Amino acid sequence: MARPGTPGVAQAGAATSTALDQTYRVTVQDSQASADAMRLLSPVAFVAGTGFVLANPAVVLFALPVAGLEP
Predict the structure, then answer these.
(1) In which band, very low, low, confident or very high, does the pLDDT at 56 lie, cut at 50, 70 and 90?
(2) Per-residue pLDDT tens for 22-54?
(3) Measured between alpha carbons, how far is 39 from 45 in angstroms, rounded to an integer?
(4) Which parts of 1-71 are beta strand (E)?
(5) pLDDT at 71 > cutoff 80
(6) CA 59 – CA 69 distance, rounded (Å)
(7) pLDDT at position 25, please?
(8) Nearest of 66, 62, 39 to residue 52 by alpha carbon
(9) Residue 55: C-alpha distances to residues 52, 58, 69 (Å)
(10) How far apart are CA 67 and CA 56, in angstroms?
(11) Which residue from 36, 31, 39, 42 is spatially nearest to 3, judged by alpha carbons?
(12) DSSP percent split of the chain into helix, strand, coil, nearest 5
């Protein structure tokens, strides 16, 4: 899935090309490794977050209005 703000096919087709005056080198790094690490850590984050909310119920009463919800 493309990130927001990435040109779509229609926009890319309408783009004009410009010749550059020098050669550029672009390095592309795959960010999939960090996504895999976060997927492995998600159960730990869930348990930690649940424990935090259970230990501090006042946090929920504060966080709900911040999120635009009513307690």
Answers:
(1) confident
(2) 998 999 877 777 777 778 878 888 888 888 878
(3) 10
(4) none
(5) no
(6) 14
(7) 92
(8) 62
(9) 5, 9, 21
(10) 17
(11) 31
(12) 55, 0, 45
For 4, 5, 6, 8, 63, the CA distances from 1, given in Å and listed in that order, are 9, 12, 10, 11, 30
Q: 32 or 9: which carries more pLDDT confidence?
A: 32
Both tokens of 68, joined, read: 């635009």
Q: Judge contact between 12 and 20, C-beta under 8 A.
A: no
In the block, tokens 């040109």 appear at: 7
Could you identify the residue written with the tokens 């501090």?
56
Q: Both tokens of residue 40? A: 């492995």
Amino acid at 60: V
Instruction: Give the whole-angstrom CA distance, residue 35 versus residue 32.
Output: 5
Amino acid occupying residue 27: T
